[in-house]
């Protein structure tokens, strides 16, 4: 989504990185020099997720409903940080961004601040993972972009291997892919298939984003394809339509036989 003509709140250019923040009604938006939206916040309900691809990334909550420790690679406008601090106030969050400019903007304009349960690191995500110890992240959210697109060190084999090492035994990684380079996207899918046993992909309707979920074991579809009543509870709790997301998941990942079976007898997760 290219930027609109809202009220200019802030503009900066540091170390050849152009950054702009604009308000339009209730929405505050972050843009890089490409002019494409990098993140957005509701001024009245800052904990809510505004941009639709973030909803699809949090399909991860169906697989890890009570995360204790979360890693965010790519802070942007801080959407995931605000969401998890609101809904999971006791969880520990490590948030990493390679740009001090972005971090300062998140702290000054998007209500992000370090606390006992939130640690912010200005570092390349891959270098951060090389230095961290343990394998206890329940959810890793990868939304690492610069003005040119997906951060090259993050969406690459060595970094994916480090992410796999840092996951808890049933942890899940959620990726945001956004690129017009089809060959690059196919390469990333091959890298994920080599590194993780379970992979699914969710093309976000009406956007160029594709969300990928990866974990060490096979994807437990019984946890994703829950009863409609359970999905409605998630929808009311978090503010976005899990039922629609699951439809996209089935359409783009089920074989014909699975789709037929699902239509005749839906999965019923506990």
SSE map:
Blueprint: E1 7-14, E2 17-24, E3 27-32, E4 37-42, H1 52-57, H2 60-63, E5 69-73, H3 79-87, E6 92-97, H4 100-109, E7 118-122, H5 125-131, E8 137-142, E9 145-146, E10 149-150, H6 157-166, E11 167-178, H7 182-195, E12 198-203, E13 209-215, H8 221-224, H9 228-238, H10 242-253, H11 256-264
Parallel strand pairs: 5-6, 5-8, 6-7, 8-11
Antiparallel strand pairs: 1-2, 2-3, 3-4, 9-10, 11-13, 12-13
Helix pairs in contact: 5-6, 6-7
Structure description:
36% of the residues lie in helices and 29% in strands. With 270 residues, it is α/β, with parallel strands linked by helices. It has two domains: 45-219, Vaccinia Virus protein VP39 (Rossmann fold, 3-Layer(aba) Sandwich), CATH 3.40.50.150; 221-270, no CATH class. Strand 5, helix 3 and strand 6 form a beta-alpha-beta unit. Helix 5 crosses helix 6 (157-166) and helix 6 packs parallel to helix 7. The longest helix has 14 residues, at 182-195. It is globular. The mean pLDDT is 89.
**Any low-confidence stretches, pLDDT <50, length ≥5?**
none
Neighbour order of strands in the largest sheet: 7-6-5-8-11-13-12
Strand content: 25-35%
What is the subunit arrangement here? Answer: single chain
Number of E-state strands: 13
Mean pLDDT value = 89
The radius of gyration computed from the alpha-carbon positions, rounded to a whole number of angstroms, is 18 Å
Keywords:
seven-stranded mixed sheet, Rossmann fold, 13 strands, alpha/beta, about 270 residues, about 35% helix
In short:
By secondary structure, the protein is α/β, with parallel strands linked by helices. The protein has two domains: 45-219, Vaccinia Virus protein VP39 (Rossmann fold, 3-Layer(aba) Sandwich), CATH 3.40.50; 221-270, no CATH class. The protein has eleven helices and 13 strands.
